[in-house]
Amino acid sequence: MEITLVNLFCRYPIQRRFNIKIFITGGNGFLGKTLIRYLRKNDNVIVAPDSKELDLRNHRFLQGFTHERFDVIFHLAAWTQAGNFASKYPGSQWINNQLINTNVLTWWKESQPHAFLVSIGTSCSYEDGSDFDEGSYLKGLPDGDLLTYGSSKRMLYIGQMAIEKEFGLKSLVAVPATLYGEGYELNNRQPHFIFDLIKKSLNQKHHSQPIRIWGNGNQKREIIFVEDFVKILIHLVKNQTTGLINIGSGYEHDINFYLNEILNICDIKNPIIHHDLQAYVGVLSKKLSINRVKTLLPDTRLTNLKVGLTKTIYDLETRYYL
Description:
- It is a single chain.
- The chain has helices at 30-39, 59-63, 85-88, 90-111, 147-167, 193-207, 226-238, 255-266, 291-296, 305-320; strands at 21-25, 45-47, 72-75, 116-120, 171-176, 178-180, 211-214, 220-221, 223-225, 243-247, 253-254, 273-276.
- By secondary structure, the protein is α/β, with parallel strands linked by helices.
- The chain folds into 2 domains: 21-178 and 224-247, NAD(P)-binding Rossmann-like Domain (Rossmann fold), CATH 3.40.50; 180-220 and 252-287 and 302-320, UDP-galactose 4-epimerase, domain 1 (Alpha-Beta Complex).
- The strands form 4 sheets. A 6-stranded parallel beta sheet has the order 2-1-3-4-5-10, sandwiched between helices. It has a two-stranded parallel sheet with strand order 6-9.
- The protein is globular.
- 39% of the residues are buried.
């Protein structure tokens, strides 16, 4: 799917310009780096300050960019981590994410009202057991351990809708399944489950460390290759899609299934696996309804799971283990 952003929608037509100007928060993250790589293919002007240059919790930092006119704002930044981070720091998550989102929305409304805003939602906002369709995003309550983070993302969506209603600005909220793919940075933070499984499998392969699984491994998760997500997201923005939209693969598997796939790709025989039944496991199922995006993009082809996992594993093994 070849995508160009040259004629990307804005409130005011782009005239006598050969590229567009894009502002990105969270551009140094996993999703941000992939998005930037694709946007640069069309010679777009990209401004993506890192967290040292732009502390979004302080509105004064954004004032340094008020003199520039951006056509699109991708708001990817959030104060969060994977695993049980949300249950450990609920208050800090609320304060930091509310500051970040309020400052970005205020800057958008006051300094960049002509820009199309794209933010990233989360499947954590859905109530456990819901249909996980867009109409359920604000119904019920997020899971107890994810209540703070999920609610802060709901507030971001509500804020965008409120600004659109009163001031006529345009925006999109994209809710991804768990992203995986090449370019993920393994650091001291708890990685998302799919990278955690790969890391533990590679640690067994190269360092003979046992694989510890949180819970019995029956909890189900949905993943989507990060490059697929980015291509879909860019296409939606190019076609002026507004509101909230789920972007996923349409299928989910349990943790044990993903682990077996990874072990086979890594060619690990007779693995040593321990299931920690006392560990945090989160919700038992979280598969997004993707009927809306399938209607808008019926011919989209996603990366095969085994192909995507193979690329991801090779990338991590090459950079961290070889």
